[in-house]
Design brief:
This protein has helices at about 5-25, 80-90, 105-110, 160-165, 220-230, 295-300, and strands at about 35, 45-55, 55-65, 65-70, 75, 95-100, 115-120, 125-135, 140-145, 150-155, 185-190, 195-205, 205-210, 235-240, 255-260, 265-275, 280-285, 290-295. By secondary structure, the chain is α+β, with helices and mostly antiparallel strands.
Amino acid sequence: MSYNRKRNVLLTLVIVLSLVYILGLVFDSSRPAAFAWLDSRLLDQADEIEIYGPEGRSVLRRRNNVWFFSAGSQELPVRQHRVEDLLAELSGKGRYTLRADSAEARQRLGLDAASRIIIRGGAGLPLLDLLVGWGDATGREVYFARAGRREIYSGEDRLSLYTDSRPGFWYDLRLFPPAITAAMIQEAEISLPAAGVRYSLRRSGSGWLVPGNEGLDLNGSRVSSWLRSLLEGEGEDFGPQAPFDDPSGGLALIEGSITLRLGDGTSFSMQAGSADETGHRYAAVTDSALVYLISERTFTRLFAGQLEFLQ
């Protein structure tokens, strides 16, 4: 074989091998690909989220563009931003690597006993049915698969926060409506009937006074700090939704109440019942059927005495 012919054969072989290599890179299934599990154009249609995880089943439903936690016949308020964060994770692009395409692999990678996120829209139409399996050998990624599909992917674990959480993770347990700000409050009345305590804090110019005892020198910063603590106060869980005056609801005996009067003439009251054997109390707020479970520490902090506001 002549030199030129050998050279041409080797050159052709190099070109063929290069093409094979390039095509292998392009079509190699182990290379990460960027995609989203949920088409962002479907977000407006989503009205139910069903989550199965180690803590059981959680159902979130959207009504009038507000998400609620469905607990039987009850709809409990949830932290809206947490639902929005979950939908953002599902509709945002991530980098995923195709790892397997077989029924045997589904069992080996934990997808037969996986956590599950189902997004529904309209008349229960599934927009997404995603399985979240075990972590990989590195501990940085987990395995994913669409229900009914054979392809199994691995990717960054951004969903276990939602699938592994208890129902309380979703709850909005703030005692007072979040729309109320400290600047809106003109007067706060604190009452502890069992202790014979009842007094008010009323805004006066840039400061505060106690009606009927205006000579007390109040510390405005302490009053403001208490108001912020009050408005940020949260329960530990929801209590039984019994009527407010039903003894089974734990509120028949009122041991403390706080009434906030706003500049527009509206008012909101929180009433707390007696402590149970665990040291917790039930509390309820005006115009709400919800009953909250609060700790004794929260009760003590919110039902402050006059002396705490003095200079």
